[in-house]
Design a protein that fits this description.
316 residues; binds flavin-adenine dinucleotide; Uridine Diphospho-n-acetylenolpyruvylglucosamine Reductase, domain 1; 28% strand; 9 helices; Uridine Diphospho-n-acetylenolpyruvylglucosamine Reductase, domain 2; five-stranded mixed beta sheet; Uridine Diphospho-n-acetylenolpyruvylglucosamine Reductase, domain 3; 28% helix; five-stranded antiparallel beta sheet; globular; alpha+beta
Length: 316
């Protein structure tokens, strides 16, 4: 059944699998695509009227959806405005990171090239403070426009008010705060130089990651040195000293050292190229991935005493 609310359709029992990069997950009880702020407001009101939970879907590149699906309203963020004026860039939540990178380079701006290979949207990337190659969203972002689904209010948060941390932000603690758009200021650049940087980053990705694989990027967050006993850990495992100058121990390193690359549970496997990528190779279910997650967490914990924390968001 399809319910039409103003310009937006709300569909029932929609497969979520195709809306994720993992290609895993059951159906959403309700599904809609929010193309405007008004659509978003209507979708949230619809959920409220049904006393149903909602969740936001960007490009689905950092989620693992339960095989049983989601019993509420899945709202796909499709707000797509992107404006550039001088050094200022305004981008809606549904704009892809790749498009934002390409358009800023075209406009002669530099400083967002690193984002080219992140296959998500601005909204998902602000929430998770996405980053790579030493840069994160917080390094470029100036402010975020937020719709509060509890109070129906729109407000603007400064970068400081977003409480960004490593793959963390205030939005993770406040699931009713929806990222509607963000503002960033970049530097004046030369398009050719930026293109060269993009080429360099793309090559690095191709050399180390499974491009085009059905996965969700890094399954686990890297381990902050501040969260472990550095001196006893490096004494026991001297090879960890190579990361002494870095703020984190890469989760991929720990998994790789335990020889878990290529380990498989039914349709899900730990990538042979990047040990922190879990890949759906053969019609994997969420249950298969979860079993693999448990196995890897257990092995890392038993060996290193470190409890890995999932970066991927589990939706059920
Ligand atoms: C091959 C591959 C490579 C990757 N490389 C990187 C990398 O280098 N660095 C990195 O940081 N990540 C990487 N990722 C992970 C992922 O692309 C990022 O986390 C991305 O920012 C997620 O954006 P998304 O739109 O896909 O979010 P989704 O996966 O759709 O959603 C992620 C979470 O954000 C929430 N959300 C989505 N939109 C909004 C919104 N508008 N407001 C509030 N909450 C919202 C969702 O409810 C969910 O909880 C990679 C993933 C893949 C598959």
């Amino acid at each position: 059944m399809v319910v039409r609310i103003k310009a937006m359709e709300i569909q029932e029992n929609v497969e979520l699998k195709p809306h994720t990069v993992f290609k895993i997950g059951g159906q959403a009880r309700y599904f809609c695509e929010a193309r405007t702020l008004e659509d978003l407001r209507e979708a949230v009101h619809f959920a409220r009227d049904k006393s149903a939970p909602f969740f936001l879907l960007g490009a689905g590149s950092n989620v693992l959806i339960s095989d049983r699906g989601f019993g509420g309203v899945a709202i796909k963020m499709m707000l797509q405005n992107l404006s550039i004026s001088g050094m200022h860039v305004g981008a809606d939540a549904g704009v892809s990171m790749a498009r934002a990178t390409a358009e800023t380079i075209k406009a002669g701006l530099a400083g967002f090239e690193w984002a080219i290979g992140i296959p998500g949207t601005i909204g998902g990337s602000v929430r998770g403070n996405a980053g790579c190659y030493g840069k994160e969203m917080k390094d470029v972002l100036h402010s975020v426009r937020v719709f509060d689904a509890m109070t129906d209010e729109l407000r603007v948060l400064s970068r400081r008010e977003c409480h960004f941390g490593y793959r963390d932000s205030i939005f993770k603690k406040n699931p009713s705060w929806i990222v509607v758009s963000m503002n960033m200021y970049l530097e004046s650049g030369v398009a050719q130089d930026s293109q060269k940087l993009v080429g360099k980053y793309s090559l690095r990705r191709r050399a180390t990651q499974d491009i085009g694989a059905q996965c969700a990027g890094c399954m686990f967050k890297n381990v902050l040195w501040g969260a472990v006993d550095k001196s006893s850990l490096t004494k026991k495992f001297p090879d960890l000293r190579e990361f002494s100058a870095s703020p984190v121990i890469p989760a991929a390193f720990l998994i790789d050292r335990l020889d878990l690359k290529g380990i498989k549970i039914r349709g899900a496997t730990v990538s042979t190229r990047h040990a922190n990528y879990f890949v759906n190779v053969d019609n994997s279910t969420a249950e298969d991935v979860m079993a693999l997650v448990s196995l890897v967490k257990d092995r890392v914990h038993r060996t290193y005493g470190i409890l890995l924390e999932e970066e991927v968001q589990f939706i059920s």
